[in-house]
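Quarterly update from the structural biology core.
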Amino acid sequence: MTTPEPAATVIVPTRGGRDRVLTLLRLLEAQDTDDLEVVVVVDGDVDDTTGAVASRASTVPVRVITFPENRGRSAALNAGVAAARGRVVIRCDDDLEPGATFVGAHVAAHGDGVVGVVGLYRNVFPDTPYARAYGRTADERFRDAAYATAADTTWRYWAGNVSVTRETAERVGPYDEAFRAYGWEDVDWGYRLHLLGVPVVLEPRLETTHRLSAVTARSRVERAFFSGAARRQFVAKHGVRWLEPTRPTTPWQAAVRLVAAVLTEGGSRRAGALADRAAGVLPARAGRALVGLLVEAAGDAGYRRGRVSDPTAV
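Predicted structure, tokenized:
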């Protein structure tokens, strides 16, 4: 039963994620604590997610907020935080598959002092040439780099499996709704948390299975372009100049810069599609290098161009 102030509120922004949300709600129903509530924010209902969530209300303490149109992930997160009653606010992507200790571990991490807590993803890949050549290896390298990062830059990993107390969320303020392109609304919020002097900690116990949607080189390269455009917006807002593309000092960096100079948004998609086909026939090392080059170049190209045609497309 939902109490007036449960230990945790799990906020789930979603659009077109009916089946993912139903899977997530089943897993939240199986948590080892019932001292929680779930707030699902439907960012324009295109697949009757609202009705599907309502059908689960008798088995899990869930409320649903539905926007009449697409307003973006930041707006959805802001609506969820505003509706939260829990002491700890957990932001949870709709394609996460948390284990039974997920909510309890997030709550426990806030027992001593004020912190922001990050759980990294364990991405699940279908068995594709992209996954074999690049995706799985890149995923492992990402986690290794995250755990090794300096304490003053852990804010860069603020994403879709994070938590703060509701009091801290109110101090930071709302997600910036000007961020509509892929990804950086989270990094912006994490950076503002860091500016308040709140430590951002990566908690290995909160690593969570993630059924990611970027499972091809085409989608990964396109997202890199979108992310680059959002990164430029972040740098312009905060003046964090070390996130700007740098002058090349190695042959690899020179190649990235050369490719970035000619990549467009549409060109990123086409190049990624070609890389998918090439990864199926090239030796593993060559396939990995090709996809990695395109991902880095697309990020720099998106940064340099600074805008995308439809920031809600990925």
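The longest strand covers residues 8-14.
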